[in-house]
Amino acid sequence: MIPSPAQYLLRFDDLCPTVSHPRWQRFLPLIEEFGLRPILAVVPDNQDRELILSPPDPQFWARMRAMEAAGATIGLHGYRHLCLSLGRSLLPLHRHSEFAGVPEETQGEWIREGLGILRGQGLNPRIFVAPRHGFDQATLRALGQEGIPLLSDGFARLPFIRGGLIWIPQQLWGPVAKNKGLWTICIHSNSATDAQVAQLYTFVREHAAEFTSVGRVLAELTPARLGLTERLYESWALWRVRAYRARKRRKLRSR
Ligand SMILES: [Zn+2]
Hints:
Elements: E1 7-15, H1 21-25, H2 28-33, E2 39-42, H3 60-69, E3 73-76, H4 104-120, E4 127-128, H5 137-145, E5 150-152, E6 160-162, E7 165-168, E8 182-188, H6 194-207, H7 214-220, H8 228-253
Bound molecules: zinc ion.
Zinc ion binds next to strand 1.
């Protein structure tokens, strides 16, 4: 059953010791004031230069532990965030990805190593967040083998089971009011503008009671295989996002 009224989950991507400190700190009062329990998508061994925006924060891991203790869910955000593979993802939103198309054995190693790094820092990673939505059937099998049954991705309006994993959909990149469904809003703290941060504050203030957590989602919404209607909705939603992105690319090129 699609939840009604709507529920929202927040997800913060690209967290690592070199995340832009001033930009990340803009969100902390919001999380604290409203007792939000977001998904914190942490890169275990970041090697992506685009995510090196501040000197490494010696307090980073302790801060993540404290936020997990306060109710956040730790996500495994890939391994090194190096998106060098051209394999086709189950969610084809980007040409390059870290995982899709990489041999299954290597994917398994990266997932194992990544989990080891996060656990070595005292965190309990529970959900996989693929960099650039890039993952394939091999990723799903490797996650299952490593005991990670959850994935944050997909365009349905409720959590569902596919490929042996529970998918908690992630469909939004900014707040949008909805009547029904479970909506994950993905935020990139490094690139969010101050106007986008202000918009998120306004939205959370208005909808605070509708914000949920991974734990609550799993306790309240029993995931099952998607029925035909929701599968059609999912295909349409994916098509819409791809069309929107293609339009944006064309606009950029014609500038
Ligand atoms: Zn990322």
